[in-house]
Amino acid sequence: MILKISTVFICFLLAGFMLAGCSYLEKEEDRTVIVRVNDAYLYEEDINALINENTSPEDSAIIVSNYINRWATQQLLIDRAQLNLPESQQKEFRDLIENYKNELYTSAYKDAVVSRQLDSTVPVEEMEAYFEENKGNFKLTEDLLKLRYVSLAENNTNINEIKSYLTSFDEEDIEELDKISLQFKNYSFNDSVWVKLKTVYDKIPALTLDHRDKLLNKSNFLQVEDSLGVYLIYVKDVLERGQDAPFEYAEPTIEKILLNKQKLNLIKELEKDITKDAIKNEQFEIYN
Predict the structure, then answer these.
(1) Rounded to whole angstroms, how far apart are CA atoms 263 and 64?
(2) Higher confidence at residue 16 or residue 251?
């Protein structure tokens, strides 16, 4: 059943809200009923929450009308369900609702208490120790590389020189590369960080699937070109899918694991303490 509520009636309601102000909300027993469906009531404050001063009267009327219709239809369906559904099914629903309510309350309380005690910073030493003990559990699901690269204009006359600097990459080479870095369209010399193969493809558009084997070849140099220029790439190290993950790659996962373990331990302590206190204060008794 869909209730027909006129725009004129809704506008009248809204005007009444503005005139009445907040005086009706001072005490719960003074709440103004707007709509009744059997034993369920929709109050003025429920409607007031739907609109604000920036909403035009026309939009407010539509919003309120739609809300009242939806609310009333839902209440009517609930009442009809309670009349027609088997008692066994209704009991099952009541149990589910009660369990869900209990879970919401207890979870919110435990989270509130635990969050005040939880140390959100896990020492690196603790994470490293966990990694060493469980290294076999951290396997790579994708290929990783350590590399350095330079993107140049196609007509750059120093390509061979830059290639030499990029390959040997000692202190003097790094200084020389810094001196001529204005020639580079793009570059990265941070070869101490593991990078996903997919990220390398995203950064260097000239790469194709045909370059995959060369990219996964440790201590290998590649020169690739496209319409945008030339890319000089030196692959320093490689870890392939299925191998043990390096610590720095597994670190975020390990941090989450250890924080979760800490949280679970705090929850256990909380449950133990709250039960102990209840027994001590005679709030919890088991009758034989």
Answers:
(1) 44
(2) 251
Which residue has tokens 């407010």? 60
Q: Which residues contact 158 (CB under 8 A, 6 or more apart)?
A: 180, 183
Burial of residue 95 (CB within 10 Å: 0-12, 13-18, 19+) is exposed
Q: Residue 22 above 60 pLDDT?
A: no
Q: What is the DSSP letter of 269?
A: H
pLDDT, one tens digit per residue, over 99-124 is 999 999 999 999 999 989 888 889 99
d(CA 97, CA 89): 12
Residue 149 confidence (pLDDT) above 90: yes
Burial class of 211 by CB neighbour count within 10 A (0 to 12, 13 to 18, 19+): middle
Q: Report, in angstroms and rounded to the nearest whole number, the Rg of the chain calculated over CA atoms.
A: 34
Number of H helices, E strands in the chain: 10, 7
Identity at 32, one-letter amino acid code: T
